[in-house]
Amino acid sequence: MAVGLGPLPTLHPVAGFELGIASAGIKRPGRKDVVVMRCAEGSRVAAVTTTNAFCAAPVLVTRERVQGDVRYLLTNTGNANAGTGAEGLANARRTCAALAGLTGVPETAILPFSTGVIGEPLPVEKIESALQAALDDLAPEHWAEAATGIMTTDTLPKGASRQFRHAGETITVTGISKGAGMIRPNMATMLGYIATDAKVARDVLQNLVLDAANKSFNRITIDGDTSTNDCCLLIATGQTNLAEITEASGELYTQLRQAVFEVCMEVAQAIVRDGEGATKFVTVQVNGGGNHQECLDVGYAVAHSPLIKTALFASDPNWGRILAAVGYAGVPDLDVSKIDVFLGDVCIASQGGRAASYTEAQGAAVMQQEEISIRIELGRGTCSETIWTTDLSHEYVRINAEYRS
Amino acid sequence: MAVGLGPLPTLHPVAGFELGIASAGIKRPGRKDVVVMRCAEGSRVAAVTTTNAFCAAPVLVTRERVQGDVRYLLTNTGNANAGTGAEGLANARRTCAALAGLTGVPETAILPFSTGVIGEPLPVEKIESALQAALDDLAPEHWAEAATGIMTTDTLPKGASRQFRHAGETITVTGISKGAGMIRPNMATMLGYIATDAKVARDVLQNLVLDAANKSFNRITIDGDTSTNDCCLLIATGQTNLAEITEASGELYTQLRQAVFEVCMEVAQAIVRDGEGATKFVTVQVNGGGNHQECLDVGYAVAHSPLIKTALFASDPNWGRILAAVGYAGVPDLDVSKIDVFLGDVCIASQGGRAASYTEAQGAAVMQQEEISIRIELGRGTCSETIWTTDLSHEYVRINAEYRS
């Protein structure tokens, strides 16, 4: 059902970063559900994590450790280790300790990540038993396998890669992500791992991931549910021969920033394209806002309205539902007579009512497309925000009613 | 699909209030889609109306006129006359003017109400042509017919009635409502008409309807979409021989207040029971909040989560999704270790994790029921709020994808 999402593009290896996958049989025997990633010594890692108050045990452990020396990322699918209390926290530490024992690094150099069903005890022994196989599988070329290994209800793996040249060196940024439901990131995202071989100052790395996540992962929504396990990591292995990148690095900084942003955006949008039951990829753009928050309020009201999402599924240009959502978004003193709404390039509503030029046939033609843009002009100011979302289909209900996730 | 909603109960006539219905063929030939209600001279009317910034033309007209002498309420279904701009406003006035011409009352004594598809021009001539038939049909006994006449995607008519005795007099409160989708009232509701034969001071009447709507209509949600046309009216015809009721009327005031509240609650909950595609009637109770707003924030986060709603549809006791929704409701400094969650009488989560005593079989037994209560104890204070909602089923998607509403 994924909308406009094809096979993985070429994912360039990142020097100093290796990936290995194995099967622990957490949900199904034989399924690849454990991914280990190794960062070269001296790597720096920055993270943004979920704002959900019920954040999962591995998120708590990752937050503790990410500022230190990080050598391994340990991810399991099939179990989120969330809502599991003190036992969950102990279990997250136990899996890290097991990996520390096999690799000889300190336990605190290992960050745990879990995704899957909430509230079940983490099957620690199963995960431990798969660690050696994952280590044996480590290779810089295994990005695609890892992208598959972190999938849950995803139907396709998600990844993106950029390279740019600077002073005779090639710098690579490669990332993968997973997520298809419980998607409304909030200062963070499902799981995203982006690595670069650049050497990047720690504060710059943190700013890069915050900024890129904010414009990409934090602007997508499928069902409005913010996960307990969202994490987005940016790893800099520092394996190039260039000097450390700071905000004073000029063009090099700008190039890296752009490459990180593009990789984040591509894998974030891939999550929407593969949204549970998605048949449409929908861009909601809100312009002319008095501030960014009111643009986001309007955008999310539209992006979360079940009535609009079912109309999108039905390819029904039901613009009245869009107006209604704009109207209840909570924008203070909204003057509806200044609002224009566009479906693709077609002006469907103008000055708060149906546009005089609009015909149902025009709207229907846009709605038939797989990729649809809804543009709302508020006429109040100069701020803009863009959000990406999906429709609401029978398949979404089937997936979430039939499967425990 | 309505959950626990049977045939209409006895709807006692209210002296001084008559109802008549007719067919204007707005959406389908022969369908009863015009309802006229007549209030006796001297009646007082109080209203709460939608907070949607895109409120419909008839709502604007009703707001202008409701403080004056009101003699007729004119309702059509099949067309909401919303998003219709200046022409819509003129059309709402035209239908009122036509009814004024037939009845000899001033145009301003007529309140218009419309419900149905947003953004289509109101078919004024069709409505005008049905007015005389509706007037000919006026009778105090026609509550049930009117309850059917105001339906759109509703599968069953909704009404409630209470009588109480005071000083040898019988006082009646009878009400009807419509609504099944685009339901998240906000200081108002879909359409609700509640009439009493009591004589009530104007400010008391306004407070009664505000208070009753706030505790009933404003605590239900089906899809989180606030309609452009929500209106709830309380009409007091003053036909009893009792003195005018004020807040100083003691027991009589208390009895009336209770009767109005009970009628509002019964017809508001009926809307949820008949929610589009509903297979479950769900009560979300949030206790122990530090203030009412945080209780509502948690309640609505749970009530609007598509993941929880699909789990309810599937009768899956997926308590992790409930914890996740509580966690992203935005309550500041939420201490998850103090939170308990109950499904019916079963404690499913305690201190932020799965309750030690909980078994999946217990949860599954509760979820099999048609009427399910979710109780969340925040452990932060003494405030409580209760919200009523439905599950999210295939049928909801089908209704809203297949039909233009």
From TrEMBL, chains A, B:
<dbReference type="GO" id="GO:0005737">
    <property type="term" value="C:cytoplasm"/>
</dbReference>
<dbReference type="Pfam" id="PF01960">
    <property type="entry name" value="ArgJ"/>
</dbReference>
<protein>
    <recommendedName>
        <fullName>Arginine biosynthesis bifunctional protein ArgJ</fullName>
        <ecNumber>2.3.1.35</ecNumber>
        <ecNumber>2.3.1.1</ecNumber>
    </recommendedName>
</protein>
<dbReference type="GO" id="GO:0006592">
    <property type="term" value="P:ornithine biosynthetic process"/>
</dbReference>
<dbReference type="InterPro" id="IPR016117">
    <property type="entry name" value="ArgJ-like_dom_sf"/>
</dbReference>
<dbReference type="GO" id="GO:0004042">
    <property type="term" value="F:L-glutamate N-acetyltransferase activity"/>
</dbReference>
<keyword id="KW-0012">Acyltransferase</keyword>
<dbReference type="InterPro" id="IPR002813">
    <property type="entry name" value="Arg_biosynth_ArgJ"/>
</dbReference>
<feature type="site" description="Cleavage; by autolysis">
    <location>
        <begin position="188"/>
        <end position="189"/>
    </location>
</feature>
<feature type="active site" description="Nucleophile">
    <location>
        <position position="189"/>
    </location>
</feature>
<feature type="binding site">
    <location>
        <position position="178"/>
    </location>
    <ligand>
        <name>substrate</name>
    </ligand>
</feature>
<keyword id="KW-0068">Autocatalytic cleavage</keyword>
<feature type="binding site">
    <location>
        <position position="152"/>
    </location>
    <ligand>
        <name>substrate</name>
    </ligand>
</feature>
<comment type="similarity">
    <text>Belongs to the ArgJ family.</text>
</comment>
<dbReference type="InterPro" id="IPR042195">
    <property type="entry name" value="ArgJ_beta_C"/>
</dbReference>
<dbReference type="GO" id="GO:0006526">
    <property type="term" value="P:L-arginine biosynthetic process"/>
</dbReference>
<keyword id="KW-0511">Multifunctional enzyme</keyword>
<comment type="subunit">
    <text>Heterotetramer of two alpha and two beta chains.</text>
</comment>
<feature type="site" description="Involved in the stabilization of negative charge on the oxyanion by the formation of the oxyanion hole">
    <location>
        <position position="116"/>
    </location>
</feature>
<dbReference type="GO" id="GO:0004358">
    <property type="term" value="F:L-glutamate N-acetyltransferase activity, acting on acetyl-L-ornithine as donor"/>
</dbReference>
<comment type="function">
    <text>Catalyzes two activities which are involved in the cyclic version of arginine biosynthesis: the synthesis of N-acetylglutamate from glutamate and acetyl-CoA as the acetyl donor, and of ornithine by transacetylation between N(2)-acetylornithine and glutamate.</text>
</comment>
<keyword id="KW-0963">Cytoplasm</keyword>
<keyword id="KW-0808">Transferase</keyword>
<feature type="binding site">
    <location>
        <position position="405"/>
    </location>
    <ligand>
        <name>substrate</name>
    </ligand>
</feature>
<comment type="pathway">
    <text>Amino-acid biosynthesis; L-arginine biosynthesis; N(2)-acetyl-L-ornithine from L-glutamate: step 1/4.</text>
</comment>
<comment type="pathway">
    <text>Amino-acid biosynthesis; L-arginine biosynthesis; L-ornithine and N-acetyl-L-glutamate from L-glutamate and N(2)-acetyl-L-ornithine (cyclic): step 1/1.</text>
</comment>
<keyword id="KW-0055">Arginine biosynthesis</keyword>
<keyword id="KW-0028">Amino-acid biosynthesis</keyword>
<feature type="binding site">
    <location>
        <position position="276"/>
    </location>
    <ligand>
        <name>substrate</name>
    </ligand>
</feature>
<feature type="binding site">
    <location>
        <position position="189"/>
    </location>
    <ligand>
        <name>substrate</name>
    </ligand>
</feature>
<feature type="site" description="Involved in the stabilization of negative charge on the oxyanion by the formation of the oxyanion hole">
    <location>
        <position position="115"/>
    </location>
</feature>
<feature type="binding site">
    <location>
        <position position="400"/>
    </location>
    <ligand>
        <name>substrate</name>
    </ligand>
</feature>
